[in-house]
Write a structure and sequence with these properties.
- The chain is an alpha/beta fold.
- It contains 5 helices and 6 strands; from the N terminus they run βαβαβαβαβαβ.
- It has helices spanning 15-28, 40-50, 70-79, 97-105, 118-134; strands at 6-11, 32-37, 58-61, 88-92, 110-113, 146-147.
- Helix 1 (15-28) links the parallel strand 1 (6-11) and strand 2.
């Protein structure tokens, strides 16, 4: 990774997924800090409160959340000028091609299907941080949009 420290934001309502994500980051021993929000309303409130002073370097966004889902959040984020360049990695259990294509068209930076195995989760998070760093936070061509462990 080219950056010394990454500030990550995870928007996910599943407590187990959040715990595994935190544990994977801990085991990777990467220079990161993590903030977790549990629904789309909390996410948008957090971004509004921090958009000018402490914007996260990367947002990992679950699609199926209560109160406001990931689809709605992505759309809103892309409409706010201060947030337009925020790298967003969709982090979902689904790998439905139509949803992946839609997220690509709506401007997500990458898409990760949540792996069932902890070792694969660690690997895909590490890969995500590396590839986002290498690509200078730009959306890749469609063939490279889905990150695999």
């Amino acid at each position: 990774m080219n950056k010394q420290h990454y500030n990550l934001l995870l928007a996910d309502d599943d407590e187990d997924d959040c715990a595994f994500f935190k544990e994977a980051l801990d085991e990777l021993s990467l220079p990161v800090s993590l903030v977790v929000v549990n629904d789309g309303v909390q996410l948008m409130d957090y971004l509004a409160a921090n958009s000018f002073k402490n914007l996260p370097d990367i947002l990992f966004l679950d699609l199926n959340m209560p109160r406001k889902n990931g689809h709605e959040c992505l759309k809103e984020i892309k409409e706010i000028e201060e947030l337009h360049t925020l790298p967003i990695i969709i982090f979902s259990t689904s790998l439905d091609t139509e949803i992946v294509d839609l997220m690509y068209k709506k401007g997500a930076t990458y898409y990760i299907r949540k792996p069932g195995e902890f070792s694969k989760l660690k690997k895909v998070i590490g890969n995500a941080l590396d590839v986002v760093s290498e690509n200078k936070l730009k959306q890749p061509v469609r063939e490279h949009f889905v990150l695999q462990p």
